[in-house]
Design goal:
This protein is an alpha/beta fold. The protein contains 7 helices and 7 strands; from the N terminus they run αααβαβαββαβαββ. It has helices spanning 6-9, 26-49, 53-91, 109-116, 138-148, 186-199, 214-223, and strands spanning 99-103, 122-127, 154-158, 171-177, 200-210, 227-233, 248-253. It has a 7-stranded mixed beta sheet, with helices on both faces. Helix 2 (26-49) runs antiparallel to helix 3 (53-91), helix 3 runs parallel beside helix 4 (109-116) and helix 6 (186-199) packs across helix 7. The longest helix is centred in the N-terminal third of the chain and has 39 residues, at 53-91.
């Protein structure tokens, strides 16, 4: 595999941390999590001094697990996802003139990395821009595109990934990172996979990284006639909370001829 360009793993934009759609400010979430970790650690110490060694050991394991999981999530948000996608995108061996689509692009972590690899092409991001605790919005993505120096070849669209308003065979590559699992139900997830395959050009490639439902994505792609379908776990850089919640990558190719 080719070595990823350093700029892919060291972005210049402001991408925040991965969060959910509950409108609780990220500092409040992390502050609460730190308090839980501290409480677990203090409880373990108190139990140890009280002579309850077994309970103290259990409490210590819980505290260390919580701290490790929190550290893993933070690292994934700040560095891990960029390292993972730098390798995934580099492995595609892009010529530089492709048109790339990112489903659920958020603040542009993957979208803008792809844009750096297509100086003569374009990178298109779609999202519904639903506000979340990290400040997800189109303006934040545009600001990041400017910070990364790729704004001139980036397009952003407010669009539902289950009903893309693009013609068939519009893109050479379709990517998605930790987005499809957020859709409400398997029917919607199947529709997103179907749409991704529809807008791919014959011979085009799909790369989806997610923390859930990846077996379903792979099965759906095979059902819809995609070729070279693979599913694999990424290494520790893709752990979203220690090995408890791993990132899996599904790849596929759209057949050049219809089945």
């Amino acid at each position: 595999m080719s070595t990823p360009p350093p700029e892919l793993a060291r972005p210049h934009g402001r991408y925040g941390v991965d969060g959910d759609y509950r409108l609780i400010p990220a500092p409040v979430v992390f502050g609460g999590y730190l308090l839980v970790c501290l409480a677990a650690a203090v409880s373990a110490v108190v139990l140890l001094f009280a002579g309850r060694v077994l309970a103290a050991v259990v409490g210590g394991v819980v505290a260390l697990t919580l701290i490790g999981a929190g550290t893993s999530v933070l690292r994934y948000s700040r560095r891990g996802k960029f390292e993972v996608w730098a390798r995934l995108l580099t492995a595609l061996g892009l010529r530089g003139d492709e048109r790339v689509l990112d489903l659920g692009c958020g603040r542009g972590a993957v979208l803008l990395a792809a844009a750096k690899l297509v100086p003569r092409g374009s990178a298109v991001g779609v999202d519904i821009w639903r506000p979340d605790q990290t400040g997800n919005c189109a303006r934040a993505t545009w600001d990041n595109a400017e910070a990364e120096g790729v704004a001139e070849r980036v397009e952003l669209h407010t669009m539902d990934m289950t009903a893309l308003r693009f013609p068939e065979a519009s893109f050479d590559v379709v990517v998605s990172s930790l987005a499809i699992h957020n859709l409400p139900g398997n029917t919607a997830r199947d529709s997103a996979i179907d749409e991704a395959l529809r807008v791919l050009r014959p011979g085009g490639r799909l790369v989806v990284a997610d923390i859930g439902f990846t077996r379903r994505y792979a099965a759906r792609l095979r059902q819809r006639g995609a070729g070279e379908v693979t599913r694999r776990s990424v290494d520790w850089r893709g752990w979203w909370g220690l090995p408890l919640l791993r990132t899996y990558v599904v790849t596929a190719t759209k057949p050049v001829t219809a089945h």
